[in-house]
């Protein structure tokens, strides 16, 4: 695989980094402290075409590949992890499934508005009783003539309340497993759709996460995404590339934490010398940089396979597992290196620590990644 970025990918990184450092990062601490949606960052992302990264130009998007997508998420996450997850979920598990599984009519109807940022997208799979066991979902979709009627409750929905379009997974078939699941495009203003509790979280305070309640929500048959009974495949394929995005978030957070820890330990003097010059500290920095480099290579490898149309389920899960564990460990060690200052919110270390924890849990816990990897190995 290629280890160097192409000139186009390098230029994209430079442009997104410039935006992230000048617009996104200055607001990140306040967004976290005030639990506020990062409006300016998302508006800037929209202007830079980051809300249609993977959508081809014919549907109004930037038409870039998965490596470009990863780089964008990585750079945003280094500045503000909340902004990164909003943009990540919108692109990977909301826009991409329409691109991959939508009819031409559905693509023309939804993708231009999503790419232009007129509507944010969200992915509504998880339910109170079905998290890791996604196929056990209970939300029902009953067909009456030209309509489906959806009833149920979803939970842990990123972008809830801000999304204009939800991809909702519901049971159309009589079986209680994956082959009875279908996917629907449900506009936020559909009658009977409402936002339930929006959670107070440990981290990612700028990214809304909460419940979505569906009470006899009627959608036309034209809003069925892919075929009846094929919704679980839609969800699994969306999560495969979603996990590349989460890996991008992980390397962004880890890069930010490591960069700040390097600066801190070079400037912080104890016993008459910068603490970075103590071998114990140097070894910690070396281990962090090594794991981060490996995580980045694994993530870029999965993204490159995805773009090439090759199987990438295993590599995406490996990248997600490795990169998010690395990010959590790096963020933890960076708190330790900054000592008391690492533990107070005047410095960014504790925010990176809180933000990183979510990555080991969402879009498939790291235990589920091991399930996916083991199944792929044994197939
Ligand atoms: N891409 C496309 N299709 C896939 C797939 C993938 N990566 N993985 C599985 N499928 C298909 C299978 O081929 C199967 O279809 P067929 O019956 O037609 O062959 C179907 O999906 C069911 O697959 P499987 O039997 O493996 O499903 P399980 O119920 O055993 O669950 C796991 C599989 C555990 C991997 C799945 O439930 C999962 O990913 N759970 C975590 C969910 C998650 O990440 N939630 C986070 C939501 S966002 S916060």
Layout of SSEs?
Blueprint: H1 7-34, H2 39-47, H3 66-79, H4 81-101, H5 104-115, E1 120-124, E2 140-144, E3 147-158, E4 163-171, E5 181-187, E6 193-198, E7 209-220, E8 224-225, H6 231-267, E9 269-270, E10 273-274, H7 279-307, H8 313-337, H9 339-342, H10 349-359, H11 366-378
Parallel strand pairs: 1-4
Antiparallel strand pairs: 2-3, 3-7, 4-5, 5-8, 6-7, 9-10
Helix pairs in contact: 1-2, 1-3, 3-4, 3-6, 4-5, 4-6, 6-7, 6-8, 6-10, 7-8, 8-10, 8-11
Bound molecules: coenzyme a persulfide.
Residues 125-126, 132-135, 156, 178-179, 232-233, 236-237, 239-240, 313, 362-364, 368, 371-372 line the site of coenzyme a persulfide (COS).
Question: Can you characterise this structure?
Answer:
There is one protein chain. The protein is an alpha+beta fold. The protein has 3 domains: 113 residues, Orthogonal Bundle (Butyryl-Coa Dehydrogenase, subunit A, domain 1); 108 residues, Butyryl-CoA Dehydrogenase, subunit A, domain 2 (Beta Barrel), CATH 2.40.110; 145 residues, Butyryl-CoA Dehydrogenase, subunit A, domain 3 (Up-down Bundle). The strands form 3 sheets. The chain has a 4-stranded mixed beta sheet. The protein has a 4-stranded antiparallel beta sheet with strand order 2-3-7-6, with helices on one face. A two-stranded antiparallel ribbon has the order 9-10. β9 and β10 form a beta hairpin. α1 packs parallel to α3 and α6 runs parallel beside α8. It is globular and about 80 Å long. The mean pLDDT is 97. Coenzyme a persulfide binds next to α6 and α11.
